[in-house]
TrEMBL record:
<feature type="domain" description="3'-5' exonuclease">
    <location>
        <begin position="2"/>
        <end position="179"/>
    </location>
</feature>
<dbReference type="InterPro" id="IPR012337">
    <property type="entry name" value="RNaseH-like_sf"/>
</dbReference>
<protein>
    <recommendedName>
        <fullName>3'-5' exonuclease domain-containing protein</fullName>
    </recommendedName>
</protein>
<dbReference type="Pfam" id="PF01612">
    <property type="entry name" value="DNA_pol_A_exo1"/>
</dbReference>
<dbReference type="GO" id="GO:0006139">
    <property type="term" value="P:nucleobase-containing compound metabolic process"/>
</dbReference>
<dbReference type="InterPro" id="IPR002562">
    <property type="entry name" value="3'-5'_exonuclease_dom"/>
</dbReference>
<dbReference type="GO" id="GO:0003676">
    <property type="term" value="F:nucleic acid binding"/>
</dbReference>
<dbReference type="GO" id="GO:0008408">
    <property type="term" value="F:3'-5' exonuclease activity"/>
</dbReference>
<dbReference type="InterPro" id="IPR036397">
    <property type="entry name" value="RNaseH_sf"/>
</dbReference>
Length: 216
C-alpha cells in the first residue's frame, strides 16, 4: 500500500482527519480517518495504540502523500506530542478557501475562516448538508469522552467517515482553481498550520518550506 510505504513514483492524495478527547498536546487522539479513492479507513488509536499509529508514520510524514484536511492545527499537535509524528505535505481546505477568495479580490480578515460544515454546503466545492455534525457537537458537550468510548456506535463510525469522505472531491475542485502563486502560499501556510502549536523545547521544525514560484 503506497500510503504505508510511500514512493516518489507513486504519489498519493488522501483525505485526513482526527477525532479525540480535547484533541491537542495534552488530550487524547482516539481516531484517525484516512479517505482514499475507493475506501475510508478508521484507525483506532485507542485499541491499536502506539504500534498502529507508528505504522502510519511514513505516510503522514511523506512528501509523496498529500494529506487533504480542514484546519489541521490540533491534529498535527496531537500527532506530534502523543506519537512523535510530524504531519507534512498538507493541503488545508480552510486555507485554500481563503486563498480562492483572495484571488477574487476579497481581502483576508483575521479570524475569518470557514467551518467544515459551511465548506461542505458550498455548492462550488461539494454541496452537501451535514446536519449530523451539529448533533455530535451537542453530544460532545454532554459527554467529552464521546470519541474514547468502545465499541464504536453506528453514529460514531458514520460521522468519523463523513468527516473525510468528501475531502478528495473538494480538493479536486479547489486545486483546479488555484493559481500557481496561491498553491505556493497554500503550501507555506499549511506547513505553518502544522507547526504552529508544536513549538517548544524540542521544537517541531518540520520540512523546508517550498521555494516561491518563478515569475512569468
Amino acid at each position: 500500500m503506497s500510503f504505508l510505504q510511500p514512493r516518489p513514483d507513486q504519489p498519493l492524495v488522501i483525505g485526513f482527519d482526527c477525532e479525540g478527547v480535547d484533541l491537542a498536546r495534552y488530550g487524547r487522539l482516539c481516531i484517525m480517518q484516512l479517505a482514499f479513492d475507493d475506501a475510508v479507513y478508521l484507525v483506532d488509536a485507542v485499541m491499536g495504540g502506539n504500534s498502529l499509529m507508528q505504522a502510519c508514520k511514513l505516510g503522514l510524514e511523506s512528501p509523496y502523500v498529500i494529506k487533504v484536511c480542514h484546519d489541521c492545527k490540533r491534529d498535527s499537535e496531537a500527532l506530534y506530542f502523543q506519537y512523535g509524528i510530524k504531519l507534512n505535505n498538507v493541503f488545508d481546505t480552510q486555507i485554500a478557501y481563503t486563498l480562492l477568495k483572495e484571488q477574487h479580490g476579497k481581502k483576508w480578515v483575521p479570524d475569518d475562516y470557514i467551518s467544515f460544515v459551511d465548506l461542505l454546503a458550498d455548492e462550488r466545492y461539494c454541496g452537501v448538508v451535514y446536519d449530523e455534525k451539529e448533533e455530535v457537537r451537542v453530544l460532545l458537550r454532554k459527554d467529552p469522552q464521546f470519541w474514547a468510548h468502545r465499541p464504536w456506535t453506528v453514529m460514531m463510525k458514520r460521522v468519523a467517515a463523513d468527516d473525510v469522505r468528501f475531502l478528495l472531491r473538494i480538493y479536486e475542485r479547489m486545486v483546479k482553481s488555484l493559481t500557481e502563486l496561491s498553491k505556493w502560499r497554500l503550501s507555506v501556510r499549511s506547513s505553518l498550520y502544522c507547526q504552529c502549536f508544536c513549538a517548544g523545547d524540542d521544537c517541531f521544525l518540520g520540512c523546508p518550506l517550498p521555494p516561491p514560484p518563478e515569475r512569468p
